[in-house]
Amino acid sequence: MERFSTGAIVLDTVVQGATRDRIALFSQGTEDPNPIHTDKAFAESAGFPDVLQQGPMTTAHFARLLTRRAGPLNSLDITFKAPVFPEEDLHLTAKVDSVASDGLVTCTLAAVKDDGTVTAVGTATWK
pTM of the predicted model, to two decimals? Predict the structure, then answer.
């Protein structure tokens, strides 16, 4: 796999927003029974304009893209900051913060909507 240095941009890409159907399938596949992901009326009663994409869907995007670029990950830690609704694209970035003497790469992650809202931040590590 590719070698990275401090400051390197590992990811800078846009992931197309998920449809309501895809969000529902993800809920089914992850056995997430929360109706906020599948029932618009329920989501509206909770104060949201539509169903919410699951946070783990954003995590899955990072995992898929990072492993393609860097190989197997040692860790992936994501904190969700704001909801993502159907059809909202996410701009995913990953930047190398450090490379340890043993080769462990530490990277900062961010997921941002088109309007500038940061929806998730985190870190990933790999060797």
Answer: 0.92
